[in-house]
Amino acid sequence: MAQNLASTVQSSAKRLFPGLSTEQAFAELLLERAQKNLIKYQAMAHRFEARYGQNFEQFRRKVLQSKPGFEMEQDYFDWEMAVTGISDMTEEIDRLQKSLPDL
What we know:
The protein is an all-alpha fold and about 100 residues long. The protein has one domain (about 1-100). The protein is built from four helices and no strands. The protein has helices spanning about 1-15, 20-50, 55-65, 70-100. The protein is elongated, with a radius of gyration of 20 Å. The model has no long low-confidence stretch (mean pLDDT about 95).
């Protein structure tokens, strides 16, 4: 079964990414996923910025200086995840782009 999967992946990579090795095709797919995740995290962060009228750092200070309710505390954790995700995906995109040949 694993051999069949490997053959299918290699065959599909050659058709979908002509001129690239299987590893380069896989890196392209990972890059696309990282870009999709970045957009998702950016949209999340923008929704929180619009909701609270401030950036995450300002919101974080406000939360840490108060006793936030459940909803605000949950928003804090979700927003922090979005900010961390933006940073992580930006680094991942940069790393993947550096590993791929110029197309």
